[in-house]
Amino acid sequence: MRCSSFSSDLRAFALVASVASVALDACSSSTSDTPVTTPTADAGADAVAPALTDEQQKSLALQGMHDALLLNANALVQAATDLQALAPVTTGRGWDVTADAKTLTDMKATWVRARTAYEKIEGALAPLFPDIDYVIDARYDDFLADLATKGGDAYLFDDRGVTGMHAVERILFADVTPARVVTFEKALQGYVIAAVPSTETEAKDFKTKLLAKLVSDAIALRDAWTPAKINAAVAFQGLIALMNEQREKVEKASSNEEESRYAQRTMADLRDNLEGTRTAYSFFKPWIVAKVNTKDPSKDGAAVAAKLDAGLVALDAAYAKVTGDAIPAPPATWSAEAPSAADLATPFGTLYASVRSAVDPAADGSVVFEMNVAAELLGFPIFTAN
Prior knowledge:
The protein is mostly helical. The protein contains 14 helices and no strands. About 9% of the residues have low confidence.
């Protein structure tokens, strides 16, 4: 989800990036510092094709990224549609954990499909369409904070107030939500205990209101994802912001505020974030590699891309060390401000330290640091966390 710091970082950046994008467009008729050349089909071995301009490089990056991420946007729509179709409505009753057991199991699996698709496009799409992102992906506590002056949201199953993927998750996975999560949420102003539909009316509202809104929001996001609406600078910085947010997503597990906390699959969210970022970045990479830094050759595009690739591999390796879809349970004595050596040696502590190092904005060689260097090469503003 869009954590509050993540949202504010992106909103602040979007204004700056839009100005930078105009400046980049104004200069895009010139060629990049280092020509990208390819042999012609019918010329001699030494013949090369004309160099690509910045505008051509950007167009190729945006079209490639659009086409690749559109597959997941379509998958999100399909999964949300399937989830709505599965939701049972039975005359005279709500859900029955015995009679509806198979359907509820299938719904949980379908929710996971939707979640996987969304997390792979979150970085690029969320900053471009923040309002749609919010209603799809905001956490329960974020919604309640915004609804505090409006009386909260006492009814779980409609299309108002708390909506989106986590609202659905909270209901679907109410039977397996960890007690520590319930304890955390009970302290929230406006808290309402999570429960499955207990009446026919609630079941019908869940299907025709809450899930219908998820479907319509997913369609709106998918339909908004067109090349004409993609600001390259904003999308690229969204990827950086999402990588920066990885450590916050891990840290929040220690206070039971983690993202997919009801289904206990926040670790899977992190892996999907990384996969989606690597996919999107791959379309910017040829443009980055084509760049030359005349002041510091060590920051030439090829060198930067190599360090960034290594950073992404390191983060992937850190994630691969964790078994399963859930973030390891933090030790009871955990302190993010001053973790002890013993706590850092636990599975959670190891993950925390690895992620923190891999995305540290100030550490040369980290994913966020190198993506910021790449942003400068492309003429984009660098990402700065609030």
